Amino acid sequence: MIPESFIHELLNRVDVVDVIDKSVPLKKAGANYSACCPFHNEKSPSFTVSPTKQFYHCFGCGAHGTAIGFVMEYQGLSFVEAIHDLARMAGMSVPQEAHDADKPAPKVVVGLQESLQQAANYYKAELKKSPRAIDYLKSRGLSGQVAAKFQIGYAPAGWQNLQSVFPQYENEALSVAGLVVENDQGRRYDRFRDRIMFPIHDQKGQVIGFGGRVINPEDTPKYYNSPETPLFQKGHELYGLFLARRAIRDAGRVLVVEGYMDVVALAQYGIDYAVAALGTATTPYHITKLMRQTEEIVFCFDGDNAGRTAAWRAVMNALSALTDGLKLSFLFLPSEHDPDSYVREFGKEKFEAEIKVAMPLSQYILKHLSENNSLQSQEDRVRFLNEAEPIMQQINAPRSAMFLRKKVAELAQLSIEEMQSLLKLPNLNKAPVQARPKITRTPQSLQKRFCLLLLMQPALASQDDLEMVNSHGGDIQVDEEILLCKTIETCLSHPHSKPVVILRELEQQVTEILFRELERELSVLDETLDLSQELVGARQQLQQVYVQKKEGMLLERIRDKPLSTLTEDERTLLKSLGNKAGQKKA
């Protein structure tokens, strides 16, 4: 059995947008992403993916679910196979637990996110009470507006200050969330004390951890992060990304720096597209996450030895995630500067000018490999090839890999064919792995789709909708026509009610099958979605369907009548239908 806790952690780590985009190319559509549904044939996209709610939904056929559900349905995998597939993607090992009927179910710790949010609110309030903490932020050039934007707070000195926020200080959620520590003697105390607090947000904007910075330069460690928790994994999160998403899209690039203060200081000077790794080297997961936002990533490091070491670690960790559409470059500041001090001394314009001339990845790799190698002797060139080989093995992007190979071969004074025969490099022309055949679905009927959209936004129902249905004269799908009429009537009577309230009003008026279908569809939809344009489109389609039905019935009625007995209206109708038929043939 796979533990329930692992499944929750897996869903926290994977991004449904990344999972689906590997199989179905997505396009940004407001706050969400859209595509033509992979589960039924359609010409206009009705398949929506919500990064905030972490689910997908198709208004055409009703397909919906989480990342696990998509992998199961698209690739035809079982639940367990889908879990293993996603775990490999996230770099996780799937644990197993023996099934024992006598063994009590594992305890689930609840309230982690709520506890973290309460702590964040407390730290923000404490910052306002601490002139010392405020003076420190001012000395770093931060305004109150920027501090408020990043929800910066202060954890006061003292051992159990959080007890005033959490009367149940012994609650397990506080220790699991990383807010409280317990020593060997069983005494509990606050993890963060006398530190400037930087809340860390996930892709939904929820607080999942903290970074704390000392005020006194003598105190250590300088930065102190939350531990790994079910909500927070350092190798998967980037500080500032949630707040920077719009600025990243506007700028067309993201700047990756080393510390919290760098991100905040740059924002103070109008450079809002910076993020920071959380006390760890940049990982392939970070690169993939940033690629969802932009195609240009610039790493900014201090020019000292520590900065150069961090830059090379970033290169090695990024190689496997590279794509040919990604522009990766490196900016090294003078050794006496970090981004915070540089932007304060030289300003935004100078800093952004440096960003534009940052060193491209390929150039940096070759520079790093050759800076202590003159490449003058045969032995020098052999060492160069030996060091370049593992790097070239990791790059899967065909064009990027080929250009780098050509440059390496040139510096080693070999032809590319000679180098290929010497080194074990992957084949760049390998055919992509084909996904399993996707499962097909029956598209949702237009009537049910219109009803679902009305339930989501009942105020958009109109009397004209009811007249359109009642006057069309058709009765082909009786149950669905009844559903449509009753839904419009109920929405007109309750224009400001919640969807679930209107649904309950319909329960006794429509068939159980249709009611259950609507109930299931409604349960997975985000009530904050703006579906007004979807509704307009569905209404136009219904109108066309009903006009065609009405014209078809009239045509059937007059078809066998002698021409001389037709009324003027019937003659006009017959003529217009004939014109339409001629246009279709043309």
Q: Please report which band the strand proportion falls in: under 5%, 5-15%, 15-25%, 25-35%, 35-45% or over 45%.
A: 5-15%
Helix content range of the residues, please?
Answer: 40-55%
Radius of gyration equals 31 Å
Oligomer: single chain
CATH top level assignment of the largest domain: Mainly Alpha
Number of domains: 4
CATH architecture of the largest domain: Orthogonal Bundle
Count, helices = 24
Mean pLDDT: 84
Largest sheet: 6 strands, mixed
CATH domain fold name of the largest domain: DNAb Helicase, Chain A
Strands in their spatial order, largest beta sheet: 12-14-13-15-16-17
Helix- and strand-based class? alpha+beta
Low-confidence stretches: 99-108, 433-437
Q: What's the N-to-C terminus distance?
A: 63 Å
Number of strands: 17
- The outline comes out as globular
Describe the structure.
The chain is α+β, with helices and mostly antiparallel strands and 586 residues long. The protein has four domains: 4-90, DNA Primase, Chain A (Alpha-Beta Complex), CATH 3.90.580.10; 112-225, DNA primase DNAg catalytic core, N-terminal domain, CATH 3.90.980; 238-365, Dna Topoisomerase Vi A Subunit, Chain: A, domain 2 (3-Layer(aba) Sandwich), CATH 3.40.1360; 446-585, DNAb Helicase, Chain A, CATH 1.10.860. Helix content is 48%, strand content 12%. The chain has 24 helices and 17 strands. The strands form four sheets. It has a six-stranded mixed β-sheet with strand order 12-14-13-15-16-17, with helices on both faces. The protein has a five-stranded antiparallel β-sheet with strand order 1-2-3-4-5. The chain has a four-stranded antiparallel β-sheet with strand order 6-9-10-11, covered by helices on one side. Strand 10 (207-214) and strand 11 (223-225) form a beta hairpin. Helix 3 (67-75) crosses helix 4 (79-90), helix 15 (378-394) runs antiparallel to helix 16 (398-411) and helix 19 (463-470) packs antiparallel against helix 20 (478-493). It is globular, with a radius of gyration of 31 Å. Mean pLDDT is 84; it is low at 99-108 and 433-437.
